[in-house]
């Protein structure tokens, strides 16, 4: 729906006919099946049927299920979730939307970089991905040296290292390189262990019975174009628009630099003003690159010692210049702090009939974060609660008991955002936000940004609002009355907006 300012009021201009739509949105499960399952069990849109398959509740008008990306890597449930979501997608191809996250797109690297043909060259001469070059990092050869030292071999000269690598069998070379990838540049320090756990459960044996070679073979198989994760990647898309509800969904976020831009564009090129055309073209580009990867004959590839060089690797970091694309950007700044929605972004969405943006990618505590544009015409939601317990002693569980069910119910010109959440404390709360004719009509301050990057996150029992201040993975919660918040907002009226 288009809107225009008219004497201080917003008058709707119909772009498409509005009708009842119901959406369940979840993102960034990263292999954590319990939080996913708990979310579904409280949904009024999606359910588990009697056989355990995902399905829509009978009688729900115009239902959609959107998974926002980052399915894998940080839990033992990623393969189970992939099978479940693929089955759901195949039965409701137009209503189940699987978005690609940076974790999915990066999985295409395994098929290319672990190919036996050049694995020894990669270990000895391989570089690091370009996004690591400006920071301290380790190279594949550093992992070779660790392997040599563990076997009491000298690493004094390059000749020593080359001789050692040439004497290793192919699978041992692949294992060394795989562990370097997972630990050093894919953000997956424990993924190998999780996959080992999965195989032990699947085979009904002890984890000690699962060798490193078994894990390697399984990862290679699952992440090949014909494997489960490869199949899943081929069913994903970059972004989605549900025009009848004015909803846009993407894994990352929209910034002044990436909005309206494609990987093929130069920084000086004018942006694509029509959002539907932009996203259609971007999805076509993405599907083309995925098909090219799936059809790739790796035996005919030329050696490239710089890893992560394919378009599927580079577009998710910086496209087309030194800024993050809509997959890897977020509603947070480079220090992971909440910042105002840039006017250029909200205006672009407003002109294109978008009133709600669903995203993830950067953690935001134990409850989804709503961020409203200054004029209340656009609401951003970050649903990534993967680090709900950022101070967890157990590195394998940074969520604790927290989970949420995020649903959107749209009916003609009214839209309701409903969040049913279980917090890290175990406390269950329900929050909602209403929009009408493309403008927030609730008197609640939820989604308002206070001075000091403090965001009003949710309303607790007893009338207190909880706010969140975040920097990096450090999260601080405060508890404020509505009067306190209104006072802080009045001080913020003349504050300059900034966005990184």
- Give me the secondary-structure category: alpha+beta
Weakly predicted, low-confidence segments: 1-16
Number of strands: 20
CATH class of the domain at 21-101 and 236-258 and 326-444: Alpha Beta
What portion of residues belong to β-strands? 15-25%
Overall morphology: globular
What does this protein structure show overall?
The relative contact order is 0.13. Among the domains are: 21-101 and 236-258 and 326-444, Purple Acid Phosphatase, chain A, domain 2; 109-233, no CATH class. The chain starts with a strand and ends in an 8-residue tail after the last helix. Strands 7-6-3-13-14-15-16 form a seven-stranded mixed sheet. By secondary structure, it is an alpha+beta fold. Mean pLDDT is 91; it is low at 1-16. The longest helix is centred in the middle third of the chain and has 20 residues, at 275-294. Helix 5 (119-125) crosses helix 6 and helix 6 (140-150) crosses helix 8 (170-185). It contains 15 helices and 20 strands. The chain has helices spanning 33-41, 78-91, 102-106, 108-113, 119-125, 140-150, 158-167, 170-185, 191-203, 212-222, 228-234, 275-294, 311-314, 343-351, 482-492, and strands at 2-6, 9-13, 21-26, 46-48, 54-56, 63-67, 96-98, 239-242, 247-250, 356-359, 369-372, 379-382, 403-411, 414-422, 428-436, 439-440, 449-450, 454-459, 465-471, 474-480. This is Calcineurin-like phosphoesterase. Residues 63-181 form the Calcineurin-like phosphoesterase domain.
């Amino acid at each position: 729906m288009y809107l225009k300012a008219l004497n201080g009021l917003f008058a709707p201009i119909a772009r498409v006919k509005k009708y009842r739509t119901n959406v369940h949105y979840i993102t960034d499960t990263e292999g954590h099946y319990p939080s996913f399952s708990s979310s579904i069990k409280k949904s009024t849109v999606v359910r588990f049927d009697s056989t355990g398959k995902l399905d829509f509740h009978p009688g729900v008008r115009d239902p959609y299920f959107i998974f926002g990306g980052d399915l894998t890597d940080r839990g033992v449930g990623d393969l189970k979730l992939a099978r479940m979501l693929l089955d759901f997608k195949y039965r409701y191809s137009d209503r189940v939307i699987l978005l690609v996250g940076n974790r999915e797109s990066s999985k295409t690297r395994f098929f290319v970089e672990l190919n036996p043909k050049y694995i020894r060259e990669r270990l000895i001469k391989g570089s690091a991905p370009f996004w690591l070059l400006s920071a301290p990092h380790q190279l594949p050869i550093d992992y070779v040296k660790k392997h040599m030292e563990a076997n009491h071999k000298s690493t004094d000269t390059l000749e020593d290292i080359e001789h050692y690598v040439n004497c290793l069998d192919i699978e041992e070379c692949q294992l060394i390189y795989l562990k370097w990838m997972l630990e050093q540049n894919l953000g997956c320090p424990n993924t190998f262990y999780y996959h080992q756990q999965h195989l032990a459960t699947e085979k009904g044996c002890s984890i000690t019975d699962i060798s490193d070679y078994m894990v390697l073979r399984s990862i290679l198989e699952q992440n090949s174009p014909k494997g489960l994760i490869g199949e899943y990647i081929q069913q994903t898309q970059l972004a989605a628009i549900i025009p009848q509800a004015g909803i846009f969904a993407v894994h990352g976020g929209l910034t002044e630099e990436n909005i309206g831009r494609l990987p093929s564009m130069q920084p000086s090129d004018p942006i694509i003003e029509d959002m539907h055309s932009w996203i259609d073209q971007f999805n076509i580009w993405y599907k083309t690159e995925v098909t090219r990867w799936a059809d790739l004959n790796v035996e005919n590839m030329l050696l490239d010692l710089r890893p992560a060089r394919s378009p599927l690797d580079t577009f998710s970091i910086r496209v087309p210049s030194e800024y993050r694309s809509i997959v890897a950007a977020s509603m947070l700044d480079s220090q992971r702090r909440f910042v105002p929605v840039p006017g250029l972004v909200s205006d672009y969405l407003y002109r294109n009939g978008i009133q709600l943006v669903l995203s993830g990618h950067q953690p935001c505590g134990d409850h989804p974060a709503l961020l409203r544009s200054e004029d209340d015409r656009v609401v951003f939601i970050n649903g990534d609660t993967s680090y709900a317990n950022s101070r967890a002693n157990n590195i394998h569980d940074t969520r604790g008991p927290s989970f949420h069910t995020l649903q959107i119910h749209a009916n003609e010109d009214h839209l309701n955002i409903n969040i049913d959440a279980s917090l890290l404390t175990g406390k269950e709360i329900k929050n909602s936000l209403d929009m009408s004719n493309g403008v927030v009509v609730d008197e609640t301050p939820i989604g308002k940004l206070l001075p000091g990057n403090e965001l009003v996150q949710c309303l607790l029992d007893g009338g207190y609002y909880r706010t969140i201040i975040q920097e990096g993975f450090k999260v601080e919660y405060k508890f404020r009355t509505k009067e306190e918040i209104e006072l802080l907002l009045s001080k913020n009226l003349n504050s300059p907006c900034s966005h990184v």
